[in-house]
Amino acid sequence: GAVVSQHPSWVICKSGTSVKIECRSLDFQATTMFWYRQFPKQSLMLMATSNEGSKATYEQGVEKDKFLINHASLTLSTLTVTSAHPEDSSFYICSSQGPSAYEQYFGPGTRLTVT
Amino acid sequence: AQSVTQLGSHVSVSEGALVLLRCNYSSSVPPYLFWYVQYPNQGLQLLLKYTSAATLVKGINGFEAEFKKSETSFHLTKPSAHMSDAAEYFCAVSDETGNTGKLIFGQGTTLQVKP
Asked: For the segment B37-90, what is each residue's pLDDT rounded down to a tens digit?
């Protein structure tokens, strides 16, 4: 299957600072990428759909000004958590949409801890 | 709106025993169905998918799932559990609201394999 990477794999930041997470599709071009959030022992919650060259589409209840998504190229999408707070601590996972219908390839995730 | 229900948040089997992880879905249109596996602190790996072809789908690592429309089920099975199968398993259904590529995930089932 396709390879998707995330960087960093884990990050600790202080409350009030911003953190950028990168999601790269390494061996295919991804017009669409997805960003998920996962709390411990819970399922994945879709945050937003990232489309190359256009604005991201956010799910209901997700603050677009807090979670900034940029998809400037066909292989890179970034999620920036702005003014992070401890409640933003979570596991963030991205995926790239493959050529087949509803096929998604997932990155390894980024563990964010806000102190 | 469609949904996915995974019966049993935790399943424990002995090594060599049958693995059965249950998934029921609701969808008003023929769905695409997926099973993913997640190891600790990692992203999701696709085990198998149903896309309206054969109802019995074979996946990686010896897993298979059968699509039963009459029961709206897509249970995951493996004849003989291995210690390395211990992980979190997620069932997912395609989002029927337009060609969004979104997936809706179940709550997840933790599989424990005892020696």
From this structure: 999 888 899 999 998 778 999 999 999 999 999 999 999 999 999 999 999 999
Tell me the residues of B at the A interface, defined by beta carbons under 8 Å apart: 32, 34, 36, 41-46, 49, 51, 90, 94-95, 100-103, 105-108, 110
**Angle of CA points A78, A79, A85, to nearest 5°:** 155
CB-count burial class (<10 Å; 0-12, 13-18, 19+) for A57: middle
Structure tokens, A80:
């920036």
- Using CB atoms, which residue from B44, B94, B102 is nearest to A49? B102
The reply to whether A102 touches chain B by the CB within 8 Å rule is yes
Per DSSP, the residues of chain B read --EEE-S-SEEEEETTS-EEE--EEE-SSPPPEEEEEE-TT--EEEEEEE-SS-SEEE-GGG-EEEEETTTTEEEEEESS--GGG-EEEEEEEE--SSS---EEE---EEEEEE-
Q: Half-sphere exposure (CA, 13 Å, Cβ side) for B37?
A: 18
Give B-chain residues touching A46 at CB under 8 angstroms.
Answer: 102-103
Contacts of A105 in chain B (CB under 8 A): 46
